Amino acid sequence: MDARLTNAWRMTVNEKKFIETALASDLRIDGRNPLEYRKITIKFGREDGSSEVQLGQTHVMGFVTSQLVQPYRDRPNEGSLSIFTEFSPMADPSFEPGRPGESAVELGRIIDRGLRESRAVDTESLCVLAGKLVWAIRIDLHILDNGGNLVDAANIAALVALLTFRRPECTLGGEDGQQVMVHPPEVKEPLPLIVHHLPIAVTFAFFNSEHTMVVDPTHNEEAVMGGRMTVTANTNGDICAIQKAGGEGVTQSDIMRCLRLASRNAESITKKINDAVETYNTERALRKIKRHSASVAVDVSISGGDVREPENKFFVHKGISELSRDQMERLNLVSEEKCTSQSSDINGGLSSSEQGRTSCQEGNATNFLGGPSSWDPYSKGVDSDSLKVSLASLGISAPDKHKRGEQKSTQAMEDKVPEDAKPATSATDTSRTGPQMSGEKTLKDAVKPKDKRRKRASSSMNAS
Amino acid sequence: MEDKPSSSPMSFVDQIVVPGDVVLDLSTMTNQTIKLGGGLRQDSDAISVMKAGKLRFSKPNKYWVESSQKRYVPCVGDSVLGIVVDSKAENFLVDIKGPALAFLPVLAFEGGTRRNIPKFEGGTLLYVRVVKANPGMNPELSCTDASGKAAEFGVLKDGYMFECSTGLSRMLLSSPTCPVLEALGNKLSFEIAVGLNGRVWVNATSPSTVIIVANAIMNSETLSGLQQKIMVDRLLQKIQT
């Protein structure tokens, strides 16, 4: 009891009075103007369907998972969508572990209504076997830090996670067509969900002093406000949902004003979401190319379309030149993190063919020469030269992956694994002309300007 | 720091120390009174460090360890900003961002008698001094200085309070004046009260001044002196235009 009393967050009367006085002159304590949103940052996790959204100080993570279940009796052809929220006690001293409190349930309901009532996610496409098996999509939202306006941030996290989620493909088989086979991602590319539109939640806070209203309240403003309203709108001009639970009364004209503001804000936020998801998809496509490098006739779908192998490379070449340096470096870091999990797949494919030739492997690569290399069925039957050529040409597509370390090591190089963006491409260049690397590349080389990379990419494409 | 002979205390002053370091050996220093501040502990003849941070020394004989964090560890003599939580018969319960609520005796005011006990409602902001701070016990506060005079302690009216880290509040109180306060003071007029527990109160005639000052101070946590000046100049320019 004592600890709870000590750790509770308290607001002084000075703060309360000041926030209201400042709002009377249209000033907010963080310097924003009353109708301005805080900075939105959207990040992705390692798996499909995981997102991390920061709205100023507010921090929310979203995860989407799917499961095959029996459908509801009254809707035998539709899948289901359910939302679970977790208000972590580390987000706010008033959050208790255990059963969700009132605000947690309200948040879940607002997001759920925005997605379900407006039919944003197409549930009929989630049906596998009518009346027997459908996909149930589950969205988990974890609140990590409460800096005010959890609803908006959680909504964005849910949308981003839904857009980047991929569900496994399943086919009907068996004698009577009733057997369902779920294909793992390595066999068949998982499919994205069909999302018709993006319902964006915009929260307004009302204060006791005459018609003062702000958009996107911070934690302090929420403690002082008299009432709040959340409007869920999309870019088509639809209002998907409105939530106003108690609090101060608001006039009709104010509500209309809020609806108009919400539509306007929805457009800019939708654009941010789409941009972020597109970056993610490009990066994912790059990863896809890498993963299937050692296997043959891959059904790689980029951004939902089926593309043949050479077209893949072309798309990826274009993708590379468009990627900014930041993304390259981010991919660097990402690749470093993933090297433990991914390299087993990738190295397995390569090392079995190149084991005989290489004596010095790079640090991370050495650890994974064991088990996984033995089960790759394709590399044994391919002769090492053509494999090297195909790898080299693919390698140019994603020069920042640590896998480059493998290729360089075939020339018996001594480069650091993460810094091989530049040396990798040069190494693959010289693989045609004969090894003559200096082995003295540093991080500076990895960060060479974009045009050089493009030049190398195109020159190597010519070479291959 | 690693290779210096450890017996001389001068070698550790202003250096980063970690828990377990022995910074003073009392057997070599006889007939000296040494005052130990926060973060230091005496184990018979050795003074060892309990908290990670920088070891500081002030003449003639005070040593302490300084580090920056969001929570505050009450220390005797500190001036802090407290928020009144509750009032009991004998004292007010005040929150000073420490591990326990602090007690402010109802008589600890200048000219305080049983007849004129002040009435503080919950949420009142006070500028107080820590009188007693023993580990495990609730700290004790007072609204007077050591000699019994009021000396600026008491209720802070109006203005705006925000929280920061203990390191930032120490920087704001350092002398010579911290660059961000100097740069702000050249152009704006405001009054400010800094608590060593990581709370800062700002007041000015117009709300926009208060907001500028508050945001400038919050941004200056990780900036060097020159960067702070530049930041303040840019902020003021943006407001002017």
Automatic annotation (TrEMBL), chain B:
CDD domains from the UniProt entry: KH-I_Rrp40, S1_Rrp40
Domain Exosome complex exonuclease Rrp40 N-terminal: 34-71
UniProt xrefs under InterPro entries: Exosome_RNA_bind1/RRP40/RRP4, KH_dom_type_1, KH_dom_type_1_sf, NA-bd_OB-fold, RRP40_KH-I, Rrp40_N_euk, Rrp40_S1
Compartment(s): Cytoplasm; Nucleus, Nucleolus
Keyword Nucleus part of the UniProt annotation: yes
Stretches assigned to the K Homology domain: 159-207
Keywords noted in UniProt: Cytoplasm, Exosome, Nucleus, RNA-binding, rRNA processing
Chief localization: cytoplasm
Family, similarity comment: Belongs to the RRP40 family.
Name of this chain's protein: Ribosomal RNA-processing protein 40
Taxon lineage: Eukaryota, Viridiplantae, Streptophyta, Embryophyta, Tracheophyta
